[in-house]
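Sample intake sheet
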Amino acid sequence: RVEVRGHRVRPEPPQYRVLLKPRGCLATLAPSAEDTAPRRSLARFIPDLEVGWQVVAPLDFLAEGVVLLTTDGALAARMSRGGGHVPMTYHLKLQGALTAADTARLSRGWKWDGRLVRPSFVETIATTQKNTWVEMVVAESRARVLKAAGETIRHSVLKISRVKLGPIRFEGL
């Protein structure tokens, strides 16, 4: 029981907000200087920063996709930076045509920063003359871990889009 000056204080219920982070935007709520391009932050999209939002499983500057903001610190800790095992679905645009061996290699996983990253799902979803789109599900939010996937098979990752964060989808955002 918590009291302040003889009055019982009850915690406010946690709040949640889903955002579609654009490319070229810092996944932080600290406003950048003037919050102008090229280094704008998510702060420009949040009118009520004083609530105490936390960014869950942030994305790299050039990645785009689903981001969860919350005031629920316990949830944020469980889901961010290796703190949990929340499946995150990404669409990766890789330079060049991928072979079945490349896809199989991605499925086996790769090392990043001393730890194994093993996707639970990898599938080619589209191919053009110059590029291949792959859908990948991993429980990772560490920076640059998906770029390392491309390096593993010697294909540059040109675009990263997170389309699902756990059960939260990007549709309608």
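Comment: The first strand starts at residue 3 and ends at 4. The CA atoms of residues 163 and 170 lie 5 Å apart.
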